[in-house]
Amino acid sequence: MVQPQHAPQAAQCKKPLVTMRSVSKSFSSGTLALTDMSLSVEPGEFVSLLGPSGCGKSTALRIIAGLGGTSSGVIDWPSSIINARGLPEGDISFVFQEPTLMPWQTVFGNVYLPLRLRGMPRAAAAPLIREALQTVGLADVEGAYPRELSGGMKMRVSIARALVTKPKLLLMDEPFAALDEITRQKLNDDVLTLWASRGIAVIFVTHSVFEAAYLSTRVVVMKARPGRVHADFPLDPVEDKTASYRTSETYRLACEKVSRSLIEAIGGEDH
Amino acid sequence: MASTNPATAQAWRNDLILRICVPILVLAVLIGIWALGVWASEVPQYILPGPWAVAKALVNDWHTLFPALLVTAKITIVSLLLALVGGVAIAVFLVQSRWIELAFYPIAVILQVTPIVAISPLILIYAPTTQVALLICAFLVAFFPILSNMVTGLKSVDHNLLNLFELYGASPLQTLWYLKIPAAQPYFMTGLRIGGGLALIAAVVAEFAAGSAGAGSGLAFRLLEAQFRMNIPRLFAALLMLSVLGVLIFAATSFVSWLVLHRWHESSLKREN
């Protein structure tokens, strides 16, 4: 693979937040989880990674977060400050499939964690924590313990924790897969609002065609065994994604487009 | 959560009364059967004294037994505290790397599986005083459950949380302090409760083995002494005091466990349904 030159700086209006160039990843068991994946995400994008299970979408997300490292290829975060461990400092947040809260901490304590790890005193962090909780609609439960919350509320705490550092890039790994349909739709709308109001970029791993079509400005469809990119295409921009969008023709067409690509990706394998 | 509405507070209070009354009632019935049995069978007091004789011995020998109780209690509690510090510190050390654990864990196991009575003669030779020897014995026994539970606890941390800490650039010390140690709390508490009981057992067994006499001797020695003198009521009185000490230690460790865990851990929660 030839490294791209740094010449076309002038042509770029925005520096990408993350670039992957022919990244491969194999596990110690010998499984090739990801092969020759290239992806570049710019500020303001909402990218869905969609594909069957085992297509390496979660692995890709972890690599983008700087977790686990690559077997070959280059991963870079051009607009971030890189710390001593070669990882982007503070610009990336991760929301896992599970809420991944510390049960021994209150909601406040859980959201405080990223700031606490940076050494920010509790008093200085409090306004930021309250703002993040307000954003996800949980201003009144900061003293509650995770076990007292519903699944949807736990997920909101997890999102508040991701937002409290004011990241430029939010990575979400099938965050709402375990929730019921109604809660999921509500949280999808909330994530869209966040994305639009904060001007952050989101990379959203999902196995739902409808979710990908609803949320994204761009969809990356992946294939399994070994995991690789099958298609990477933008969706028509939609100004106002309200409830009526779910029943609109534009949404139906987007679903169809994503669905067709996914069927191709799955059809290419032996089953 | 509880006691917010009067109905649940009432139910909670009834439950508490029930939890206290039922065991006391059962205990009273058992003591009654004992008294009745001793009275009916006319068994001599030097074989089986009745509860009244035991109570009398407890009052009359209080000046001998109580200082002995304090000695045993002190050995038990100090050894338990040492075991807590040592167990946690060594557990933290062991989980630092697979190599360290491979190298040192078997040694801890060997120390544990060797019966304490068998090592106590050696410890008595090497230790500067009998008290120190007793302390070492009780420590060795109480230490292992705390160590092994703590090792399990430190290694059972949710992998996603570990990833999260890594993502946010947590240092190993931060990960230990904010994640691994809190996550290990329930395991630590299990170790504490087991270790508390074992520390008392070990203190008594070690004292039997040491057979130390004199002013500074503990309750276990008083117990043996009472047996040699066929003063069975006093033996029972000493036994009773040991039981009460055991119950107190159990209650204290359970309370500490409840205090730390009741806000968040499943083991301290009532099922809502």
Notes on the structure:
The complex is a heterodimer of chains A (271) and B (273). In chain A, the strands form 2 sheets. In chain A, strands 5-6-7-3-8-9 form a 6-stranded mixed β-sheet, with helices on both faces. Helices cover 33% and strands 21% of the residues of chain A. Chain A has 2 domains: 33-91 and 168-271, 3-Layer(aba) Sandwich (Rossmann fold), CATH 3.40.50; 99-166, no CATH class. Chain A is an alpha/beta fold. Chain A contains 7 helices and 9 strands; from the N terminus they run E-E-E-H-E-E-H-H-H-E-H-E-H-E-E-H. Chain B folds into 2 domains: 1-42; 49-268, Orthogonal Bundle (MetI-like fold), CATH 1.10.3720.10. With 273 residues, chain B is an all-alpha fold. In chain B, helix 5 crosses helix 6 (130-155). The model of chain B has no long low-confidence stretch (mean pLDDT 88). At the A-B interface, strand 5 and helix 2 of A face helix 7 and helix 8 of B.
Protein traits:
heterodimer; A: 271 residues; alpha/beta; Rossmann fold; 2 domains; 6-stranded mixed beta sheet; 3-stranded antiparallel beta sheet; 33% helix; globular; disordered N terminus; B: 273 residues; mainly alpha; MetI-like fold; 10 helices; 81% helix
User: What is the CA-based Rg of chain B, rounded?
Assistant: 23 Å
Structural class of chain B: mainly alpha
* CATH class category of the largest domain in chain B: Mainly Alpha
CATH topology of the largest domain in chain A: Rossmann fold
Number of E-type strands of chain B? 0
List the helices and strands and how they pair.
The complex is a heterodimer of chains A (271) and B (273).
Chain A: E1 18-26, E2 32-41, E3 46-50, H1 57-64, E4 72-76, E5 92-95, H2 107-117, H3 122-135, H4 151-163, E6 169-173, H5 181-198, E7 201-206, H6 209-215, E8 218-223, E9 228-234, H7 249-267
Parallel strand pairs in A: 3-7, 3-8, 5-6, 6-7
Antiparallel strand pairs in A: 1-2, 1-4, 8-9
Helix pairs in contact in A: 2-3, 2-4, 3-4, 6-7
Chain B: H1 6-41, H2 51-60, H3 62-94, H4 98-113, H5 116-126, H6 130-155, H7 159-167, H8 172-210, H9 219-228, H10 232-261
